[in-house]
Predict the structure.
Amino acid sequence: MNIDFSILSATLLFLFVIDPFGNIPILLSAMKGVPQKRQSQIVLRDGLIGLLILVSFLFFGAEFLALLHLETESISIAGGVVLFVIALKMIFPSVIQVDKHQPVEPFIVPISIPMLAGPSTLATLLVMVKSYPGDEIGLLISVFAAWGISVVILALAPLLNRILKEKGLAALERLMGMLLLMMAVQMLVNGVRSLFTHTMASL
C-alpha cells in the first residue's frame, strides 16, 4: 500500500480499538471490593502483561501472517470489516452482563485480556504489521502510547466514573466509535483501491 505510516494515526487507531472508556464499567465491577490503592497496582500489573502480549504480536505477527499466505489487500479489507463491526458495537452498545460477586481480585482477565490485548486489538495489530512492513519501530511507539493512555484511563476509572457518570462515559465511547468507523471505512477503501490497481496492472 502506498499510504504513508503515521504514528499519531496508528496510536489513535489502537486507542479506539482498546476503548478504555467503554471498559470502565466492566473494570469497576471486576474491582468491586478491592481496596482502591490495590486497584491501581492491579491495573499496572495486568497492564504490563497486556503490553507484553501486544509487543509479542507486533514482532512475531508477520511470521504468523506469512504462514497463512495472506496478501496486504486481503488484510486491509478484512481489518476494515472487523473495525467496522467494532465501531458499530461502540456506537450501539449492548447490555453486558458481568459478575457482581467476584470472590477474588482480577488477574490477567479481564484487564490484560480482553481489555488491553483482546482479539480485536491483536487483529488490528496484525493488520498494521502486514500493511506497513518495515515500520515496526513506529508501530511499537504507537502501541506504547495507546497502551499508556489506556492504562492511565483504567487506573483513573473510579475518578472518571464519578466525574463523567454513566451518560458521559457512554457519550465518549460513541464518539470514539464514530471516529473508528471513519477509519474502518478508509481502511476498506484503501484495500479495495489497492486490489483494483494491482488487478488492472496484471491485465
Notes: The two ends are 19 Å apart (CA to CA). Residues 7-97+109-201 form one domain. The chain has eight helices and no strands. Residues 157-202 form the longest helix (46 residues).
